[in-house]
Design goal:
There is one protein chain. By secondary structure, the chain is mainly alpha-helical. It has 2 domains: 46 residues; 122 residues. The protein contains 7 helices and no strands.
């Protein structure tokens, strides 16, 4: 009878220890997950001013390209050069924003930033900037690995949302 009570007590003790370890591991995992979300949100909030300019930069790029392609230089020979200089300035700004998004995508891949927080805050802007880059690369043999983390993250998001992927394929 004593062996049964001892075995039962040992089993009970092992179960209690297992539950304590499970609780601690869940608590630690949840704590670090919360800290990662908090860190990501603080990082995004600290860079709000830069990302607020994205729509303006993309609009200005489209406006300059449209003006240049329409050929309406209003009799001013220097206007074409001015447009090309403006386009170069906006392209430089777009490239720096793409590098910023690429660093964020790399951080998501390395589990530094929370993917869901990044997706909620930046998915639209990331897609718009990357679309502008792809339009600029169109018709060229351009094999650059500069923005691979960003490309992989956008493809990962496409695979998580098959309805959007089907819509894109249908275009």
């Amino acid at each position: 009878m004593i062996q049964f009570e001892t075995a039962f007590f040992m089993l009970y003790l092992l179960c209690c220890i297992a539950f304590v370890f499970l609780y601690i591991s869940l608590y630690v995992n949840r704590h670090f997950s919360f800290k990662k979300i908090e860190f990501t949100q603080k990082f995004i909030d600290s860079n709000r001013a830069m990302t607020a300019e994205i729509d303006k930069i993309l609009f200005n790029i489209e406006l300059v390209i449209h003006t240049y392609e329409s050929g309406n230089f209003y009799g001013n020979e220097n206007h074409e050069q001015k447009l090309m200089d403006e386009l170069h300035d906006y392209a430089t700004q777009l490239f720096s924003i793409l590098k910023y998004f690429n660093n964020i995508a790399s951080g998501v891949d390395k589990n530094i930033f929370d993917e869901n927080v990044v997706r909620v805050n930046y998915e639209h802007d990331m897609r718009a900037c990357y679309k502008r880059l792809r339009l600029a690369r169109r018709g060229r043999d351009y094999n650059d690995e500069t923005f691979l983390p960003l490309e992989f993250l956008l493809k990962k998001w496409d695979s998580k949302n098959p309805a959007k992927l089907k819509w894109k394929v249908g275009i």
